[in-house]
Specification:
Elements lengths: L4 E10 L2 E11 L3 E6 L6 H8 L5 E8 L2 E2 L5 H6 L2 E4 L11 H7 L8 H10 L1 H5 L10 H12 L6 E5 L7 H15 L3 E6 L2 H7 E8 L2 E7 H5 L2 H7 L7
Parallel strand pairs: 3-8, 3-9, 6-7, 7-8
Antiparallel strand pairs: 1-2, 1-4, 4-5, 9-10
The protein binds adenosine-5'-triphosphate.
Length: 237
């Protein structure tokens, strides 16, 4: 099957700094695909370049065969790509419902879809009328993902959802992310190898703005030598 997203030799500059040095990546359709790498390796820059928040200076990004390299971020979003940034982009002073409503195309909910989201993330129903700042760190992350899937998406980019969360919360998130991945494709940036391993079908390891390893997660998970070679680059291996 053709990949849903393809990056070919992508170079990105931030101000005068050359950050991505020719990133090539294929994201297969369906399931969870992971980018691992240490702090500052270029994970966030890769996601931001995909959604047009940074512009690739060189190389190409194709989504379902369409060249999106030079499109503006809102046009990329309209094609069906959602981005959950590390800071989650939620409004603490607004209720969960209001946060969700702002994420819809026209302010209205599809009842079936909302029911499904409440089933995947029960805390969203429980806190529906409460301000988002009342949510725990893990629940805020759930809200951020719920917002991303309030409209049906083809691809969701999620930046380090486990950052700062307790292991018990992270374990709960695994099942919820599997449910989300059953209907869409997730490109996940992580430093937590246990979480990545539980969810990922494929993995790319990035270091210093370059992809240094690509393969299946099963291969990396089952190969101690590969892990010590590549995951020493990642802080929570
Ligand atoms: N706004 C910016 N201005 C200057 N340099 C930046 C900026 N944003 C990122 N960088 C640099 O780009 C490099 C890659 O950063 P990036 O955020 O993509 O890394 P990351 O792998 O996501 O790491 P982290 O886990 O810390 O988020 C780092 O060296 C970082 O210092």
């Amino acid at each position: 099957m053709a990949p849903v997203l393809t990056l070919e030799d992508v170079h990105t500059d931030i101000a005068q700094y050359h950050i991505l040095h020719g990133v090539s990546l294929e994201v297969p359709e369906g399931g969870v695909h992971v980018i691992l790498g240490r702090n500052g390796a270029g994970k966030t820059t890769t996601l931001r370049t995909i959604v047009g928040l940074w512009k690739a200076r060189q190389g190409s990004i194709r989504f379902r065969g369409q060249d999106i390299t030079r499109l503006q971020t809102p046009d990329i979003a309209r094609l069906g790509i959602a981005f959950v940034p590390e800071n989650m982009g939620i409004f603490g002073g607004l209720t969960v419902e209001e946060n969700m409503r702002l994420a819809t195309a026209d302010g209205s909910f599809d009842a079936e879809r909302l029911k499904r989201i409440h089933a995947i993330f029960p805390a969203m129903a429980q806190f529906w009328t409460k301000p988002a700042h009342a949510l725990s760190g893990g629940q805020k992350q759930m809200l951020a993902v719920s917002r991303a899937i309030i409209e049906k998406r083809d691809l969701i980019l999620i930046d380090e959802p486990t950052k700062g969360l307790a292991p018990a919360i992270i374990r709960n998130m695994i099942a919820a992310f599997r449910e989300v991945a059953a209907e869409t494709t997730i490109l996940l940036v992580e430093q937590n190898f246990h979480f990545a391993k539980a969810l990922g079908q494929t993995v790319a390891v990035i270091d210093d703005g370059r992809i240094v390893h690509r393969g299946t997660m099963a291969e990396l998970a089952g190969d101690a030598a590969l892990q010590s070679r590549f995951l020493s680059l990642s802080v929570e291996a």
